[in-house]
């Protein structure tokens, strides 16, 4: 094994490829903290995290002031031990988004380092359960788009081989239903339509809308309620045959356990950045497997494709391209399936020149032994 000698930090800001508006917010920018870990063998691991426009500098400060200094001198291969130690080090601010996002940047870098040194791609190192996963697109279903636009995008996605699309909901209920029915009539029965409310509703409204959305034969109702309302999700799930999907706003494996034990969801959308890295992501996926529940992660398709192929219960990868401008090779897509990289590491081919051009001013940090 080899000890960590240096950690380098930076942050790039990526503009959305399309305008993205949902029921409660707009995705204005992807602040992307990047962690590079260097060990005494000369190996490098690169990890990252993200925000949707705010909080990136707070993540960077937590990394620079607390997590990165704590990595120096540690055995880089002891990934689980390091993750737990950093979680305890930050216990006064856990569970929370900033802490989880910072943990994820470190943990993904350590997994990248581990995979590179082993000569294995992430999906093999983490389990090796599948060689491809179905792909659905969210890029044409944003709430600000009119009905004609979302129908046209769904038809294009179907022609391109995607297995489904996601439509944002949160307009007046009959308007939402009209949009969903228009897409269903256009694509027919063999194409999945998923819906996403982004935590917009109270329980009574979510129950009402689930009743109306059934007419479009939707594949799931995503984030219908605030993520901390487990009891509300129990009531909703018991009231409808529509699968209830949660996870992108959950920051603790034990919170997922509560949802699963109480039958409050039937699709788990664990996000590798928001759960705190690959180490806890795999725990959540395996717990979901024990409940016979599918994993369909949120965002970060370039990283999630490897994780989905590592576990047997992953069903879908969400297509929202965001790293194309700062990577060389993009995620492989064949026949509507996402295929994991066969290269050692996370499988993300970072373009260093592009990263340097987009680096936020003052974000570069270098931490070594004192």
From TrEMBL:
Cofactor: Mg(2+)
Pfam assignment, any one: MR_MLE_C
Leader sequence residues: none
Gene Ontology annotations of biological process type: carbohydrate catabolic process
Coiled-coil zones: none
Keyword Magnesium: yes
Cytoplasm is among the record's keywords: no
Ranges of residues in domain Mandelate racemase/muconate lactonizing enzyme C-terminal: 148-243
Keywords from the named record: Magnesium, Metal-binding
Example GO molecular function: magnesium ion binding
CDD domains: MR_like
UniProt protein name: Mandelate racemase
């Amino acid at each position: 094994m080899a000890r960590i000698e240096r950690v380098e930090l930076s942050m790039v800001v990526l503009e959305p490829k399309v305008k993205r508006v949902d029921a409660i917010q707009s995705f204005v920018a992807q602040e992307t903290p990047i962690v590079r870990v260097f060990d005494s063998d000369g190996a490098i691991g690169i990890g990252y995290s993200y925000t949707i426009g705010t909080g990136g500098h707070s993540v960077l400060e937590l990394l620079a002031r607390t997590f990165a200094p704590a990595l120096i001198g540690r055995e880089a291969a002891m990934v689980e031990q390091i993750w737990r130690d950093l979680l305890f080090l930050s216990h006064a601010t856990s569970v929370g988004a900033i802490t989880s996002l910072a943990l994820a940047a470190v943990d993904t870098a350590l997994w990248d380092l581990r995979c590179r040194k082993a000569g294995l791609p992430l999906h093999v190192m983490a389990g090796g359960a599948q060689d491809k996963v179905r792909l659905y697109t969210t890029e044409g279903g944003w709430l600000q788009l009119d009905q004609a636009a979302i129908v046209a995008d769904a038809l294009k996605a179907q022609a391109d081989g995607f297995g489904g699309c996601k439509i944002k909901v949160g307009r007046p209920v009959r308007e939402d239903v009209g949009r969903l029915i228009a897409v269903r009539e256009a694509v027919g029965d063999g194409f999945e339509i998923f819906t996403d409310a982004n935590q917009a509703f109270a329980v009574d409204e979510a129950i009402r809308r689930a009743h109306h959305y059934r007419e479009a034969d939707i594949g799931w109702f995503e984030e219908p309620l605030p993520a901390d309302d487990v009891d509300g999700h129990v009531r909703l799930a018991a009231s409808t045959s529509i699968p209830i999907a949660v996870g992108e706003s959950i920051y603790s494996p034990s919170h997922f356990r509560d949802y699963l034990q109480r039958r409050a969801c039937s699709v788990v959308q664990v996000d590798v950045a928001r759960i705190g890295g690959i180490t806890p992501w795999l725990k959540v996926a395996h717990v979901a497997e024990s409940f016979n529940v599918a994993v369909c992660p949120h965002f970060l398709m370039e990283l999630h494709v490897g994780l989905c192929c590592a576990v047997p219960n992953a069903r879908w990868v969400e297509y929202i391209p965001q790293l194309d401008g700062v990577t060389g090779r993009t995620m492989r897509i064949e026949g509507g399936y996402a295929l994991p990289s066969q290269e050692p590491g996370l499988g993300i081919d970072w373009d260093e020149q592009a990263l340097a051009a987009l680096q936020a001013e003052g974000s570069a940090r270098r931490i070594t032994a004192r």
